[in-house]
Structure formats: C-alpha cells, structure tokens
Amino acid sequence: MSIRRLPEKLVNRIAAGEVVERPAAALKELVENAIDAGSTRISVRIAEGGISRLEVEDDGCGMTGADMALALERHATSKLPTDAIEDVTTMGFRGEALPSIASVARLTLESRLAGGDGWKRVVDNGVLVAEGPAALGKGTRVMVEDLFARVPARRKFLRSGRSEYAACLDVVRRLAMARPDIGFTVEHDGRRVLDVQGGQDQLTRVAALTQRDLAANSIGVDIDRGDVHLGGVISLPTYNRGIADHQYLFVNGRPVKDRLLVGALRGAYADLLARDRHPVVALFFDVPTSEVDVNVHPAKTEVRFRDPQLVRGMIVGGLRRALDEHGFRSVQRPAEAALAAWQQEPVAPQSPGLFVAPAPHLQNRAMFGGDDGTTTALLHERIVDFAPPRDALPMGRAEVAVAPVPEAEAHPLGIARGQIAKTYIVAEAEDGLVIVDQHAAHERLVLEQLRRGMGGQAVPSQGLLLPEVVELDEPACDRLEAAAPQLAALGVELERFGPAAVMVRATPAMLGAIDCQKLVTDIADDLAGYDAALGLNERLELVAATMACHGSVRAGRTLSVAEMNALLRTMEVTPHSGQCNHGRPTWVKLAMDDVEKLFGRK
C-alpha cells in the first residue's frame, strides 16, 4: 500500500477528533480565543446543549477580512510572534481550533476592528459558502451550527442535550473563574443561566461561581515558594462532595485537570476524608513559563512541571498547614433541612382545666376583688406533677447546671450537660447548644495521637501477656514484615512467624483491649489496597486511620460528666478535631438565635 498525502479537508476532520470531541470542547476553544483577543465582556448562547447551535460574542480587538481568512487555515495564529513556544502566555497557540470546528459544522465568523468595517465568512463542513460585509460592533462573533451533522459516526456518541449543556456550563464557569477581570454571560435556550461582572477580585469571583455556603466553610490559601505562588480557597474537610467535579485547578490562568495536581490534593486530605468523598477547592498556580510545559495535550487540559516534587510539596504541605491552623473548625451550623426537621408542638386550645375553679364560697365575689373592695387575685394555678411514670425509663442523663458556662473564645465547645442515647454529648456553650458525636470525636483524637507517634513521639504500647499469632497469606505477611519498624512507632509490635503468619507482641496502649486478629488483618488489607505509588509513610498514615477506628470510644458507651468534659477540652486543642477520619463533622452548634426561632421567640 503506497503512502499518500492526506487532503486538507480530511486532515481537518482528523484534527477535529482531537480538539472537538463534543460541543463543550468547541465552546472552550471559542471562549479562549475571545479571552486572548483582550475582551472585557464575553457572551455565550447555547441551544440544545450546544449540539444545534453555539454562539460566542466578544468585544475584543477584532480582525480584518484577510486575517479572518488566514484564521480559518490550519496552524495559523497570532499568538506565537516568535518560535519560542515555551514562552507562550495565551490560552491557545496551535491555530487548529477554527479550521477543525469548521470542518465538522457550519461556522459563521463575523468580526470588526475598531474604526473599521465588519466582515463575515461562512464555512459549511470545510467549504466556504459565503462572505461579505457584516454589521456588528467592535469585536468578534462566532456561531457554530449543527455540530457533527454530517459525521454521524461522531454525532451518535454525543450525550443528551442536558448532559452536553452541563459540560458547556462547566467549561465557561472554569474559564470565568480564571479571569475575574472579564464579564461573562451564558444563555441556554433563551434563558440566562450565568451572569458575572468584570473587574472582580479572585475570591469574589470564586464565591459567585460556586456554592453559596462555600465562603462560610472554606479556608484561604496564600503560599509563596521562590517564583511559584499558590493561592485560592479550600473547603473544610466536613464540607465535601461525592464527586470531584467541584475541584477547580488553574496553572497560569489556564484551567487544567492534571493528574499530579489531583493526586497531591488527594494526599493533602488523605486522612481527613473518606475515599469516596472529595473537597471543594479553587486553587491558582502562578509558575514561570520556563518551569511548565503546556504543550502536552491536544485540549491543553494537562501540563508538565519541570519540578513536580516542588508542586506536590506545596499542595500537600501548604494545604496541610492551612487545615492544621483551622483544624478545630467544622461545618458548625446544621443544614437548613435538618433544622426544619425539628418538631414543634402545636399550640392546643386553652384547656378548661388549666385553672382551678374558685371554691364555692368565693363564686359570688368579683373576679379581681373581694366584698371589702380589696384586689386579691383569685386565679389558682394547677400544680403540675412532673414525676415520670414508674415504667418510663430515662433516655439520657443530665448534670445539674451549676457549673458556669465558659467563655466561647477560650472553650468554644462549652461544658457538658448530659448524654443522649449513649452516643451524643450535649454541651452548653456561651453562644449556643453544642452536640458532639463521641465516637467520631474520639476516633479523630486517637488518630492524631498515632500521627504524632509517626512524627517521632513514640506511641506507648501495651505488651500482650500471651503473644497472639495471626495467620494471613504470604504476600500480606511480607507487607507487614516490611512495614514492621514503622508499625512499631505506632505501638504495634509484630514479627514474622513462619511463611504465612505473624506474631503480635504489643498493641497501642490507647486502643485498650482490642481484637488483634481483626486489627492486623485490616492493617494488611490497607497496606495492599492503597495506591502502590504512595510512599510507605503515606500509606501508614492512612493505616493509622483504621487503627484509630478500632480503639475509639464506641457509640453506646455511657460516659461520666468528667469524661465528657475531658473529651471536649481535648478536642479544643487537637488539630482536625472538627471532623472525623471520614470527613463527617464531629460536632455541630445550634446558635441561640436558632433555638429561639424554634420556639417562636424570633
């Protein structure tokens, strides 16, 4: 078979397969062009999820008719004035987007320079069908219609209009977040769904494009290391999502979905979230252009760093420090739905037995006065007996409220007043009512003690009177034997006992009496299950979370008031005590305003 040079039209369709996989990809290229044109306002109109029509209009620099013709040719661009591609600072630079889109759709390109005349070119699936004058203001308007209409093999792989619309909106949201100086509007099927003004600061733009309550449940990040800067906001571990779509990562103003950054982010939250939960973040990296390569992916969604360890260290270390400084915080206010679920007793009509009738010899007297003109009140309150029935059992225990409530600044968790269902501690704080999940809270406290052990402060161990032999398969024993020195720092002393068993000689004293068989089996499973790309110490940090769960105070255990207060005081000085090892809150606070609302006082 002889080699032939492919025709231009076929080359464009092949390139379109890399650059224009769906309407959102085409929209991304068009909006990036508008940003590179120096626009201050970009308007996007979408119909049927972008499948039938996409339109992007900007007020950028515009183009002449000759430049428009050149822009529709492959590898023609104004964004690389020299051959130094490593110095590129624009969003696009390859010059492939417009001809690729025009080869698989009907593309109408209109543009006008300031003080010049507007011009229009229409290309239908790679064929120029019309051109001529156009009436529009300064800037450019691009309309893409019937994407993949003549490429049924590609059209059938598109998703529903609703799914494609969601992808388009996500693309614009990420680009708008990267450029808070530019205003963006998005209309879908004639309905405006996004509108942000230009000239905003970065944090204001992030708040406008994410969940409304992120601002109250986030931590600011501002880290410099040499010429590299990392800024943005990250959510508290207790404010998380079931999918990773709410993670916005940017490198030099370019939205990316880079595996290195995502992996580092997962490492920063490693023992703060369950494996199936994800934080909400918006992180912005500013890196010298010589330290990052953006020309590694057709859609420019991945980058390659010259020093990946520096970047990973900034994310893991910087975010860890920020979370440590705010480790006590949690999503303190109950969700509105949870607050609304509180039952309020309906106000019943006044019972005739509420007040006791006056004695017969007083019935002829005036209600508020006697025969002698005095004003003695004759209303008698019925004495209500609050003694419970003999067969009723109390559902909780309460301490007599004689101890003063401590200051909120010094002791934000207040003082324990009782325990409910042998699971939740009820405390009175200066500014509200605090409810603590005793199992989740103690699990976090035990984990932090184990982490300190890994940091050099050895965890006290408790020797077993009779060493216990745990039988496992040979690979599991190999992993445990390799990790034995590190496990000893956590208080677990074990040694190989034949090819398919280990002997446990000591366990962490803080765990108390535990099932050694189950503990060692879980540790072996965790060492095998976590990503092998993680270092041993990183994997052991995750194993420590499993160990903490074994030794924490279980729900269902009755605590004395002294134990409850000791737990509260320890939580107040322990990092990350606001969330358990799975990212759930360990305590919530019901502000006094909310309590008063429940009783109709406000």
Write up this protein.
By secondary structure, this protein is α+β, with helices and mostly antiparallel strands. The protein is about 30% helix and about 25% strand. The chain has 17 helices and 27 strands. It has an 8-stranded mixed β-sheet. A hairpin with a 5-residue loop joins strand 1 (about 40-45) and strand 2 (about 55-60). The radius of gyration is 33 Å and the shape is elongated. The chain starts with 7 loop residues before the first helix and ends with a helix. The model is unreliable at about 350-385 (pLDDT under 50).
Task: Give the tags.
alpha+beta, 5-stranded mixed sheet, elongated, 30% helix, 8-stranded mixed sheet, 602 residues
Q: Which structural category fits the helices and strands? A: alpha+beta
Strand order of the largest sheet: 5-4-3-6-2-1-7-8
Instruction: Tell me the radius of gyration.
Output: 33 Å
Give the overall pLDDT as a whole number.
81
User: What global shape is seen?
Assistant: elongated
What ranges have pLDDT less than 50 throughout 5 or more consecutive residues? 350-386
